Amino acid sequence: MQTVLLVDDEQRMLDLIELFLIPQGIKCIKETSGNRAIEILKKEKVNLVLLDVMMPELDGWEVCKRIREFSNIPIIMLTARADKLDLVKGLNIGADDYISKPFDERELIARVSALLRRFSEVEKDTDANIRYNEFILDTEMYSLNYQNLTVNLTLKEFYILKALISRPSKTYTREELLDAAWEYETETDIRTVDSHIRNLRDKLKKAGFPTNEFLKTAWGIGYKWN
User: Fold this and answer.
1) b/e map of 89-105 (b: 16 or more CB within 10 Å)?
2) Is the dihedral angle over the CA atoms 78, 31, 72, 127 positive or is it negative?
3) Is the bond preceding residue 102 a cis peptide, omega within 30 degrees?
4) CA end-to-end span of the chain, whole Å?
5) Cys bridge to 90: 14, 42, 77, 128, which one at CB 3.0-4.6 A?
6) pLDDT tens column, 64-118
7) What is the CATH number of domain 2-122?
8) Domain residue spans in the chain?
9) What is the pTM of this model?
């Protein structure tokens, strides 16, 4: 059984989400405190975090940033606001996906199930590292290696890079990368891909990767790994 950590300061919302997920065979751990949620992740086996943005003391943005300091577990942000800047902010600090409140039960289940399935597939596929020239996409550690450099990836970043590196001669449209990373029919804004690419570039650049030489923008089309 897979486990999802639900983090929201409203107990009623935690109970509602749990009601949706339990019939899918998902165990839920419910927490109203961001600080306690971080401690749970350090001690227990959890497969995904569903994280509310607007919480007292420690908001969802800060919780997400702190989680990313020690874990690449999939994170879905829950936000009551549809402001695109807020959504982009979440993706830029390491969230894999977002859902705006009020949400549809079917959409919630689809997004959670897809991320859990992808996370499980990557964990099982430990002998299928993807190589291109000196780059190695590690399917066990969710990381990209280049010479003696390594950068850890979120699950969405991993699947975007997997698509790009697997076919380095291909220019992917944003729609194709959205399909590769999300796997299911979604209303996610196509600009979400740009946010993930921007985050990837920042990560790779800070780690010393020659990003400008390999992760290319095809203006008006999308991206390619060259």
Assistant:
1) bbbebbbbbbbbeeeee
2) negative
3) yes
4) 40
5) 77
6) 999 988 888 999 998 876 555 666 677 778 888 888 888 889 989 988 998 888 7
7) 3.40.50.2300
8) 2-122, 125-225
9) 0.68
